[in-house]
From TrEMBL:
<dbReference type="InterPro" id="IPR002130">
    <property type="entry name" value="Cyclophilin-type_PPIase_dom"/>
</dbReference>
<dbReference type="Pfam" id="PF00160">
    <property type="entry name" value="Pro_isomerase"/>
</dbReference>
<keyword id="KW-0413">Isomerase</keyword>
<dbReference type="InterPro" id="IPR044666">
    <property type="entry name" value="Cyclophilin_A-like"/>
</dbReference>
<dbReference type="GO" id="GO:0016853">
    <property type="term" value="F:isomerase activity"/>
</dbReference>
<protein>
    <recommendedName>
        <fullName>Peptidyl-prolyl cis-trans isomerase</fullName>
        <ecNumber>5.2.1.8</ecNumber>
    </recommendedName>
</protein>
<dbReference type="InterPro" id="IPR029000">
    <property type="entry name" value="Cyclophilin-like_dom_sf"/>
</dbReference>
<comment type="function">
    <text>PPIases accelerate the folding of proteins. It catalyzes the cis-trans isomerization of proline imidic peptide bonds in oligopeptides.</text>
</comment>
<comment type="similarity">
    <text>Belongs to the cyclophilin-type PPIase family.</text>
</comment>
<keyword id="KW-0697">Rotamase</keyword>
<feature type="domain" description="PPIase cyclophilin-type">
    <location>
        <begin position="23"/>
        <end position="173"/>
    </location>
</feature>
Amino acid sequence: MLKTLSLLALSIVLVSSVYKEKTYTVGQIKTPKGEILFQLYDETPNHKASFIKLANQHYWDTLTFNRVINNFVAQGGCPDTPAGFSDSPYLLKPEFRKEIRHIYGAVGAGRDNNPEMLSAGCQFYIVQNKNGLARLDDKFTVFGQVFKGMDVVDAITAVKTDSLDAPLSPISLKVSVIQLTAKELKEKGFAGKIE
């Protein structure tokens, strides 16, 4: 009897260790104003991999949302200056996709005016204009879409700023990647297609 129970327990452990529910990689930004969660697009693999790499290295954890403009974007990471972009750990070739546009909540990669339209690995922005920003399409790479926390982004872009659009009180970033199951995604408000 004891041997049968031991074999049954071992079978349950083996089956549960073999069957693991699929999880999805999600971008997470924690700020003093709340949490932002966003899908990372497989269609922009280099920007997705770059975001995951820098998040896992805690690259942004000492930085802030350094440029916020109501009805435009909340931008964070390296400073929006020539010196800031030159301090980027690397630049990425653009990954423009016709099916991915600058809609409300789109997460894109910042860049300077370089002719190759290379993205700064260190900088990202979230579109806060409810009508989107079509003028940025095919000029800046969109690599994600917020599905929870646009109220947080709205609050961030509503703060008082200086003449360079930097918040008068810094808004810190804690950027991570987390794994969520399909059920957890839906519970957190994700309405997209889950494969």
